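User: I'll paste a sequence; please echo it back and then give the predicted structure.

Assistant: Echoing your sequence first, then the prediction.
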Amino acid sequence: MPEETVTVYQFVGGDGPFSLLVDAFYRGVEQDPLLRPMYPEDLGPARERLFLFLTQFFGGPRRYEAQRGHPRLRMRHLPFPIGTEARDAWLRHMGAAVEEVAISEPARTMMLQYFANTANFMMNQTPETP
């Protein structure tokens, strides 16, 4: 009999911890002078989209896809200047959120690795050479 695979979504406890993660992340974004201007005045819709995306990506319900179709992350982020500083700020806030929510291993490492890879992939600005 095959073992049932447990998703990260299930392992961390479903919607609740992801909601806390998104809230903690956006508290950091709200105070960040580099990232905050990239978001609209009302962060509510961005919070909802991130929550739906993360829960789906990590094995939860496919609500993001049902509402918005394919994520197309790079395309959706192209209008925003994402260089090294923006990437690092985003990762700092997401890492702090993972710590605040106390995501346990092995999900913690899996999530942080995904966030690092994705943040690098979203970069669309090259560092200026002196």
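The helical segments are 8-12, 15-30, 44-57, 63-68, 73-77, 84-101, 107-122. Residues 111 and 117 are 10 Å apart (CA to CA).
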